[in-house]
Design a protein that fits this description.
With 280 residues, this protein is α+β, with helices and mostly antiparallel strands. It has 2 domains: 143 residues, 2-Layer Sandwich (Fructose-1,6-Bisphosphatase, Chain A, domain 1); 125 residues, D-Maltodextrin-Binding Protein, domain 2 (3-Layer(aba) Sandwich), CATH 3.40.190. The protein is built from 8 helices and 14 strands. The strands form 3 sheets. It has a 7-stranded mixed sheet with strand order 3-4-5-6-7-8-9, with helices on both faces. β10, α5 and β11 form a beta-alpha-beta unit. α6 runs parallel beside α7.
Length: 280
């Protein structure tokens, strides 16, 4: 079954991909919004194009995007539909030219993330989901295929996907606490969420600060429609209507069997490391 809203989101993401790749192939300059927070012309140009296209296609929806005025969220809060846009998730990876960056467009209807699009311009792989289509993936030259989270039932047996750029000592201790040493390093939040949704990995956990709402909305919808669970690190569903756009309580994504085990183990980790800011 098709979903016209999702189809339009996919079209908008695909239209922005060549623009990003055009910059990627050049010796582009890098600015910094803050320490360790790079931004490039690709971020800004893609942000402008995606937001303009969404506004044309969905004039009554709110739009909240990483490179736009943060005051826009306050204006968008009352809208029934809110799009959360990360025009270039994984800017560090973009700068490093390792290909691990994505376009993310997520849609909140009511208080839940319902639609998600994650597109990797470098590879052309697309992950998308909605309630009427479930979750699927397409590769260049191939038909779309349905995806589902994995069926691992023990934390000790999990393949954990973790950040390539933000590995911390406490995160390493938490992984040790899980009893697993099998870790897949990926650069962007979108790729990590997609890895859970298509069963490339079993568990994605960021125990403390985990980016912004635009880093979570699309993958939240993707993981849920793939049969998994996506919450903060305390087991609570993400609040996309909160005035605070920061994911201060972390992220936890996995299948439904692992999720209560993960949340319990994270609580134990906080008790073991009560002073660790990464766990709060």
């Amino acid at each position: 079954m098709n979903d016209p809203v999702l189809d339009e989101m996919v079209r908008i993401a695909e239209a922005a991909s060549p623009l990003i790749l055009e910059v990627y192939k050049t010796d582009f300059s890098v600015d910094y919004k803050a320490k360790d927070d790079p931004v490039t012309q690709a971020d800004q140009r893609a942000n402008e194009q995606i937001c303009a296209s969404l506004a044309d296609a969905f004039p009554d929806a709110g739009i909240v995007a990483e490179e736009s005025d943060p005051e826009g969220f306050r204006r968008a809060q009352a809208a029934e539909r809110i799009f959360f846009v990360d025009p270039l998730d994984g800017t560090r990876e973009f700068v490093a030219k390792n290909g691990e960056f994505v376009i993310m467009i997520g849609l909140v209807e009511g208080d839940r993330a319902t639609h998600g699009v994650v597109l990797a311009p470098a590879s052309g792989i697309l992950w998308a989901a909605s309630p009427s289509t479930a979750a699927w993936r397409s590769r260049p030259g191939e038909n779309r295929s349905m995806i589902h989270v994995g069926n691992c039932g023990r934390l000790e047996d999990t393949m954990v996907v973790a950040s390539r750029s933000h590995r911390t000592e406490v995160l390493e201790q938490v992984l040790e606490f899980f009893g697993t040493s099998t870790v897949m390093a990926l650069g962007s939040a979108g790729l990590k969420g997609a890895a859970i949704a298509d069963a490339s990995a079993d568990l994605y956990v960021a125990p403390g600060h985990a980016g912004k709402r635009w880093d979570s909305c699309a993958v939240d919808a993707l993981v849920h429609q793939a049969g998994g669970v996506y919450t903060d690190a305390y087991g609570t569903l993400m609040d996309y209507r909160s005035r605070d756009l920061t994911n201060r309580r972390g992220v936890a994504a996995c299948n439904k069997t692992l999720h209560p085990l993960l949340i319990s183990r994270l609580a134990d980790a906080r008790a073991t490391h009560p002073d660790a800011p990464e766990l709060k």
